[in-house]
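The record is kept unedited without comment:

——
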Amino acid sequence: MIGALRLGALGIGMLVFQALLTALLPLGFRPDVVLVFAAAMGLQRGREMQGLVFAFGIGFAMDVMSGSPQGLYALLRGTACAATRVLDRALYVSTPLSWALYCGVYWVVDWLAVGLILQFLQPAAALPWAEIARNAPGAAVLTALVASALLGLFRRIDSGSERDTDWDSFGRGGQRVRP
């Protein structure tokens, strides 16, 4: 339970940090820390559904704060979590370099998806493709750097959550699960 609280607090902290970055930095120099958080939820071992719920929830909070079509970021952040879960087995993205590359490339895929969806749903609010292409390299590189720096934090929280009481232990009288 403590691991879930830590992840929730980290997710809210990432959302606040993302809001500050959006307010302070120009478009081409904003790392997407919420995307990194959502993707990192796919790396959790033994708590896949919990990670997916956190990724979806943080995406929903982004939807509320950004004024985007409702469900856009919730869907994309949930997809980031699920894709990371699936691709981690094939690519082994758990090293800092591979994690940074994965998050940088995934950021580009995510922004293309946002651009396509906004062009389809709200053409007046969508950014022109030339502006997206001009701002993408800096933001993708910064997202990759931030992802590499945060990997240790996600690992620490994930390893700490393994020591917490498991949901299955409620049937055993609340005994702690030992690794």
Summary: The chain has one domain: 2-162. The two ends are 16 Å apart (CA to CA).
